[in-house]
Write a structure and sequence with these properties.
The structure holds 2 protein chains of 2 kinds. By secondary structure, chain A is α+β, with helices and mostly antiparallel strands. Chain A is 61% helix and 12% strand. In chain A, the strands form 2 sheets. In chain A, strands 3, 4, 5, 6, 7 and 8 form a 6-stranded antiparallel sheet that branches. In chain A, α2 runs antiparallel to α5. Classes of the chains: A alpha+beta, B alpha+beta.
């Protein structure tokens, strides 16, 4: 019954997507006349997607094991939170979530279309094409409502790794909001190409969707890193794994896009480049979906092999060949005429930022897909080591950080050395002091020192600008500071995000350079020293929880005779799984995290072996990620109050 | 129009050069994955460096000492001796799939890094084991 309702929803959505393409094309051919109504297809798309998702959730909550998806990914003992999250913890369900979010974005685009709108009609038709693909997948290769002839008494339960931490309930939807959101600017860019619309209108209109998508993509990546840190127990948060790269690649090009979009809106330049960037970004989201969902890469994201892989690969080819082919044929129609006045200007730094971000994306892309291409052609199975990525990423990242510091200080059009010097002096002083302090504190690797100096430069430049602007205003200092972000949300939201990125850079440099790992074996009552801490093994424990059996060790952490707390690294044994899942235990501190991962605990023996890690300043990484997200949303909620270029230019202070 | 074709072609040219550079660079950082049969049939040179070896731990071969554990891994046709430095994880045991990283001296694989392969086997209520692709049992 539920399966039928859900599948009906999929079919309604699929039919509506087809209808949306037809009406979108008709409306486009009729010069965007509002008389061709797209209301019905939009309503059908949303209703179908909601029905499908609702049916899936209902089936999970009511333990309807006649549906294969539920039988495989859910069991009676699964707690409610992970039951709800079960709808996106496996392949078919995650496509349903994708479809639901796509339907939501499509409806939102449609609601904002008023009057005669050729480009909007074409964009909705493009979104309809994307919807046809995903709802088509649900109707065929990835049908979540496939039923079983024999109904099992209980299901298998989802992958234990995916029901081990609360972040699992949030990371996928947040990441999908980012991934799927990139469809909107992509659809508008393609529509502008088809219509030969040389104005910057499509960019102006998609700004909000792009910012929402980018913010959620950023948050989703940070949540994924956090999950990896808290759950996987290998002692890190980022390993340049193909699935991590899959989320990072579109983030890089989307970041380039939101920056070059500013140049286009303010100065009318880089228009064709923006179209190319957003086609690239959308292609990378589909590539990422292919990598994580098809099983070409073995990971927690890859589910069983299915026909979804070839379908996604075909769709990727269509997007890349179709998108860039269209760009090659019609790119000149959307090209901008203004030329760069001077490389030494804000536009110049934006250009540098774009080149670096795309270079970064390209390097990561080559490192990610090279092993797959090699295996396809020679059969050799290889992996590209993390050191290769690190070596490539560090120099690019540092230059990007520098550009991030200089860019907001440089005026548009042309940066006169005197003006630039006046703005750069204070941040330079702060950077010098910060790096001197870092040297005194004993931080040695040169990359860490450079990162600290650049992060200080970035933040000091922003603080200085905020201070100057606020001081020039009539109101009280603190009140004006509080109102500052609202006065030009696009700019100040971006600056907030910059602060977040600078903090993330510092945290990454610190944890990469000063992380320590040590294997420690203890018997009950015994203590061991670890990096200034004392670890005392109090006792092993065994807990029966509703959905799992937990075996672990209670280890007391103290420093200088003061007890800081206890850590409980453990193994979770799920009833339907043969293997137990280790879960680390982390004590987050202001200075550093102490992280214990259980290696071995012998039943009936009093010894335990743990991997002990120390990572400095990890909280800065999570905080920085949240600040990036907040900054992105802050600029989304803002409207530019004026459009004249001169009025928006920061005063030459 | 021409400008855009020219732009695209020159970008493709630049990308091709960059790919060449990156791949020649990557080659020095590749970690190869081999099965026991590949190692024995086509032994890597002694100076070939580190690679990964994957297989199942053979029952009855595990010998643990305080710092090392020795065992044999098999891919079903060929078996290879492994000398691993370090305490193996809790999940390590006979019949478990492992991926080791280290060097080959011609007769023994010296490993210092071990990844336990998470298997996709599930337990039925009756205690039997089945894989996701096997059929669902009757209630």
């Amino acid at each position: 019954m539920i399966a039928l309702a859900g599948y009906t929803g999929v079919i309604i959505a699929l039919a509506s997507a087809v209808a949306l393409v037809v009406t979108g094309v008709r409306c486009y051919l009729a010069d965007g006349t509002p008389s061709v109504s797209m209301r019905l297809p939009i309503i059908g798309l949303v209703v179908g997607a909601v029905l499908a998702m609702g049916a899936l959730e209902l089936a999970l909550i009511t333990n309807d094991f006649s549906i294969e998806y539920v039988a495989r990914n859910h069991s009676r003992g699964t707690p409610l939170l992970f039951t709800v999250a079960g709808a996106w913890s496996a392949l078919a369900g995650s496509i349903v979530l994708w479809g639901l979010i796509l339907a939501g974005y499509t409806a939102w685009v449609w609601r904002r279309i008023t009057g005669r709108d050729t480009v909007g009609a074409a964009a909705l038709a493009i979104m309809g094409v994307v919807a046809i693909f995903f709802f088509g997948l649900m109707a065929t290769a990835a049908n979540p409502f496939h039923t079983l002839a024999q109904v099992p008494a209980d299901g298998l339960g989802s992958n234990p790794l995916l029901q081990n931490h609360i972040l699992m309930a949030f990371h996928p939807p947040v990441l999908y909001l980012g991934y799927v959101g990139m469809t909107v600017p992509f659809a508008f860019a393609i529509a502008a190409l088809i219509a030969g619309d040389g104005t910057t209108q499509w960019l102006e209109r998609t700004r909000r969707w792009t910012l929402v998508a980018w913010s959620f993509l950023s948050l989703g990546i940070v949540l994924g890193a956090w999950w990896s840190y808290e759950v996987l127990g290998w002692g890190g948060f980022w390993g340049w794994d193909p699935v991590e790269n899959a989320s990072f690649l579109p983030w890089l090009t989307a970041t380039a896009f939101i920056h070059s979009a500013v140049v286009q809106r303010r100065r009318g330049m880089l228009q064709a480049w923006n179209v190319a960037l957003i086609i690239g970004t959308f292609s990378l989201t589909i590539l990422g979906t292919f990598l994580t969902r098809s099983g070409v890469v073995a990971s927690v994201h890859s589910f069983t092999q299915s026909a979804v892989g070839p379908a996604l690969l075909a769709f990727l080819l269509i997007v890349v060949v179709g998108g860039f082919g269209l760009f090659a044929m019609r790119g000149h129609l959307v090209a901008s005429t203004p030329r760069l006045d001077s490389l030494a200007s804000r536009e110049g730094v934006f250009l540098l930022n774009n080149l670096l971000l795309t270079l970064f994306a390209f390097v990561v892309l080559v490192g990610t897909i090279y092993p797959m291409v090699l295996e396809a052609f020679t059969g050799d199975r290889v992996s590209v080591g993390a050191p290769w990525f690190d070596r490539s990423a560090i120099p690019i990242g540092l230059v990007l950080l520098l550009a991030m510091g200089v860019g907001p200080l440089a005026p548009y059009r042309i940066a006169r050395p005197s003006v630039l010097w006046r703005r750069v002096r204070f941040p330079l002083q702060v950077a010098a002091v910060a790096s001197a302090l870092a040297v005194v504190a004993g931080l040695r690797p040169i990359t860490v020192l450079i990162t600290v100096a650049l992060a200080a430069f970035v933040i000091a430049g922003i603080v200085r600008h905020a201070h100057e602007v606020v001081r020039a205003r009539p109101g009280g200092y603190l009140g004006e500071m509080a109102r500052l972000a609202g006065s030009d949300p696009g700019y100040w939201g971006g600056m907030i995000a910059h602060v977040g990125v600078a903090l993330v850079a510092v945290a990454v440099a610190f944890s990469g350079s000063f992380g320590v790992r040590q294997e420690i074996t203890l018997t009950v009552g015994q203590s061991a020293f670890f990096e200034g801490y004392t670890l005392t093994y109090l006792s092993p424990f065994l807990r029966e929880e509703p959905n799992r059996t937990v075996v672990g060790a209670t280890i007391e952490l103290s420093r200088g005779g003061r007890v800081l707390g206890t850590l409980e690294p453990r193994l979770n044994q799920y009833p339907n799984q043969v293997q137990a899942i280790p879960t680390p235990s982390v004590r987050t501190g202001l200075r550093e995290d102490v992280y214990l991962s259980l290696v071995r605990i012998e039943p009936g023996s009093a010894t335990v072996t743990v991997d002990a890690f120390r990572f400095p300043l990890m909280w800065l990484l999570w905080l920085g990620g949240l600040i990036v997200f907040a900054g992105g949303l802050r600029s989304y909620f803002g409207r530019r109050r004026t459009t004249a270029v001169a009025a928006l230019e920061p005063a030459d202070v | 129009m021409k400008r855009y074709r020219m732009f695209l072609i020159s970008m493709l040219g630049l990308l091709a050069i960059l790919v060449g550079f990156l791949i020649s660079n990557i080659r020095e950082n590749l970690v190869y994955y081999r099965t026991p049969t590949e190692v024995v049939d086509d032994p890597p040179a002694a100076d070939a460096g580190r690679f990964r070896l994957g297989g199942l731990v053979v029952a009855g071969t595990v010998v643990e000492s305080s710092t090392n554990v020795t065992f044999a891994v098999t891919d079903g046709t060929t078996t290879v001796e492994v000398d691993h430095v370090g305490t193996p994880q809790q999940l390590f045991g006979e019949g478990i799939g492992v991926v080791l990283e280290g060097t080959w001296d011609g007769s023994v694989f010296h490993s210092d890094s071990m990844i336990i392969k998470h298997d996709e086997q599930y337990r039925t209520e009756e205690g039997g084991v089945y894989t996701p692709d096997s059929r669902y049992p009757a209630p």
